[in-house]
Every structure is written in C-alpha cells, then in structure tokens.
Inverse folding.
C-alpha cells in the first residue's frame, strides 16, 4: 500500500458507470482501508457521442439512494460525496444547465471525452494524423468547452487525449501548445473553477499524471489554486493509486495544498 498524506480521492467510478463493474461499497471500503477521510463517487454521464450506440448515463434515483445508504453506514469513518463526471460538448450547455436544476450533486467533474463527437479512446481520431496534430485539436475542443460551460467544479484530466496517442507522451512537446493551454487555464481561473490531478496517467504508462507536470506548473504560475486529486479508479484496488507520486510532484512544484468540496464550499488541505 502506498504511503502519502493526501486523504481525499475525488475521482472514483463504480458499476453506475458503463465501464465499471465495481460496487460502490467496495470502493468506499477500499477508501477506508487506505486511510482516506474524503472520497467522491463520480460516475459517468456522457451523451451524444457519435461512436457509441447509446448514451452512457445512470439512474439518478437509484444512484442517490445507494450513495445515501453508504453515507449513513460509514459516516463515522469517511465522508462520501455523491458526485458525477459529465462529458462536456458545445451543444450540451443548456442540457446540463437544466439537468443540474433537477439533480443536486455534491461535486461535479467536467471532462472532455470527445472531440467532434468522437472519443480518442477508440483511436479513430488518430488515423492518418500525427499525435501532436490530434493533441492540439483536442485542446482546441477543451478550450471551446471551458469557455461555454459553467456547470462543473473542476476540469477533469485536461490532457486526456495523450493517453491514447500512438506514441502517448513519448515525443509530445507540451510547450508547442502552451498558447492553447494558457487560454484554457486562464479561462478556468477567471471562472472560479479548478483542475484535477488525475493519477490514471501514471497507471496508463505516461511519464506522469493528467495533466502533465508542465501544465500543473503553468496553472500555479497563472495563479490557479483549486486542485482536486483523483485516481479515476474503475476497480476498488486502484483507489488512491499513484498518490505518493502526486504528493512528490506537488512538493517539487512548491504546491502545498489540495482541494476538497463540502456542501458546495471549497476547503484546502495541506500536503507535506
């Protein structure tokens, strides 16, 4: 088991997500086992992707009932947020505005999973193109979405696309895209949003987390302060994975706090 003093995993999936078979309770129990004091379940809500036959959503009534039971059962051991990870697309601004008028979540990750209706995970966007070309097109999609959307707390895995490139981050020159990255980060900061540091990049064979260390450093330089940390676990054994690496990265960048959300309010916890 990894040793670290980060006590909140704010990106977790269960069987309410289309790509997980894990029970929410197993995720909670693993969080307790690893010494976490706060976790956020953030199951997927993605619609209108051209490459999937169906929208990937869950039954909100059943979800809130299940998370509510776990909140009560384990209230003396861990704080559980009923969260959600939504897929941001330009045509969904009004959809999400109305959706969150009906459904109240404790924490919302806004992630860009598709570009022009296509998911980099399926690799089709890379056919006949260089990785760097696709990465830049993805960042352009991220910028468009963060300018349009307001219904989220943090932007999820900012450079998600790098995970699926032919050479991943082996030859990726992040600095070539800093014009777009700066615009994304400045927009997020101006809107009072944050970014997440997602340790799944480490598990997937990248040099570091999502976003890259260079982007995290730039976020700090631009005055960004809201940083949640998440494993993006889809199985219980991945809860908190890579957090010791994240802790070392934060300390090397002279970042001493991470963020949690409680009752709609931000709280900052010290990393040391």
């Amino acid at each position: 088991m990894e040793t670290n003093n980060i006590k909140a995993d704010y990106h977790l999936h269960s069987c309410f997500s289309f790509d997980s078979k894990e029970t929410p309770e197993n995720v909670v129990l693993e969080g307790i086992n690893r010494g976490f004091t706060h976790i956020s379940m953030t199951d997927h809500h993605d619609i209108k992707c051209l490459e999937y036959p169906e929208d990937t959503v869950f039954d909100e009534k059943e979800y809130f009932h299940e998370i509510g039971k776990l909140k009560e059962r384990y209230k003396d051991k861990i704080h559980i947020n009923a969260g959600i990870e939504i897929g941001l697309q330009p045509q969904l601004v009004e959809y999400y505005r109305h959706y969150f008028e009906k459904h109240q979540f404790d924490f919302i990750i806004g992630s860009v999973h598709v570009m022009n209706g296509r998911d980099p995970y399926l690799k089709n966007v890379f056919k006949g193109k260089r990785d760097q070309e696709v990465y830049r097109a993805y960042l352009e999609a991220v910028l468009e979405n963060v300018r349009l959307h307001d219904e989220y707390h943090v932007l999820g895995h900012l450079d998600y696309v790098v995970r699926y490139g032919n050479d991943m981050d082996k030859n990726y020159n992040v600095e070539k895209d800093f014009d777009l990255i700066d615009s994304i980060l400045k927009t997020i900061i101006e809107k009072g949003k944050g970014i997440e540091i997602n340790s799944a990049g480490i598990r997937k064979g990248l040099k570091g987390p999502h976003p890259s260390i260079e982007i995290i450093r730039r976020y700090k330089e631009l005055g960004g302060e809201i940083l949640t940390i998440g494993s993006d676990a889809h199985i219980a054994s991945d809860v908190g994975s890579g957090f010791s690496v994240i802790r070392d990265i934060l300390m090397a960048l002279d970042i001493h706090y991470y963020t949690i959300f409680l009752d709609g309010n931000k709280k900052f916890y010290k990393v040391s």
